[in-house]
Amino acid sequence: MPTQAHHNGRKLVPLAAALLIALASQTALAEKHGHDMEQHGSHEHGVARLTIAATEDGLEIMLESPAANVFGFEHNAKSEAEHEVVHAALETLQDGAALFAINDAAACKLESANVESAIATRHDAEKHDEHDHDKAEKHDEHDHDKHAADKSTHSDVDATWAYHCAQPAAIDSVNVKLFSAFPQGFEEIDVEWVTASNAGKAELEQDGTVSLKP
Ligand SMILES: [Zn+2]
Predict the structure, then answer these.
(1) Are 163 and 110 spatial neighbours (Cβ–Cβ below 8 Å)?
(2) What is the CA(70)–ligand 1 centre distance, in A?
(3) Integer angstrom CA distances of residue 59 from 7, 143, 172, 201
(4) Interval between CA 16 and ligand 1 midpoint (Å)
(5) How far is it between the farthest Cα atoms of the chain?
(6) pLDDT by residue (tens digit) across 128-172?
(7) Which domain holds residue 114?
(8) pLDDT > 90: percent of the chain
(9) What is the pLDDT of residue 34?
(10) Measured between alpha carbons, how far is residue 151 from residues 69, 91, 195 in Å?
(11) Ligand 1: distance of its center to the CA of 14 in Å?
(12) 155 CA from centroid of ligand 1 (Å)
């Protein structure tokens, strides 16, 4: 509609698209290698990565987090209580409107939410052998640095929220509420953002607003 928005929409594509392609190929690689890839380099409990990228008609927000930050554990849910924890966390993650607030003038609406986690996809099915369970239980008792080498006990969550905005040119900030949504989970969120004309980084240690202006 407004020509300015349209103009911005076209200009931002190469930068945002390049970023999205990079992220997509990373995800594809992780999927291809399955569980062996669940420890990609920077898995540190409490820390997560958030990418905010302008699209032609809105915004895409991507979270890459250790599963422990949202579920409190990284093994497959074993008890009823753990299943409930997983379900509740997934519901919270699906509700992008509660997790992020884009400035009002942009008139954005959540279009889709996609949450991927090995825990989320396996938790209500398979039986696992007792050895795995024993291992997973010990996971929690040891200090994290020590078991960091134990790949089998780590797992990530990847979530993507897509917003459609009536005034994409007016997007200038995103309020992030992940800390209060998961009070036991996040200690630090490293944010990278990219718009039509700019890109930047921010580091959050509590709920806060990320400005998408230089
Ligand atoms: Zn872990």
Answers:
(1) yes
(2) 11
(3) 16, 38, 11, 16
(4) 30
(5) 62
(6) 443 444 444 444 444 444 444 444 578 999 999 999 999 999 999
(7) 3-211
(8) 58
(9) 37
(10) 17, 27, 35
(11) 34
(12) 6
Q: Output the CA 190–ligand 1 centroid distance in Å.
A: 17
> What single-letter amino acid sits at 60?
E
Transcribe 14-33 into DSSP letters: HHHHHHHHHHHHHHHHHHHH
- Give me the number of domains the chain comprises: 1
Q: What is the dihedral of CA 180, 82, 122, 31, to 10 degrees?
A: 30
Q: How far, in Å, is the centroid of ligand 1 from the Cα of 50?
A: 18
Question: How far away, in angstroms, is 25 Cα from ligand 1 center?
Answer: 22
Rounded Cα gap, residues 53 and 16, in angstroms: 6
DSSP E strands in 67-149: the ranges are: 100-102, 108-117
Question: Which residues have CB atoms below 5 A from the ion given as ligand 1?
Answer: 66, 74, 154
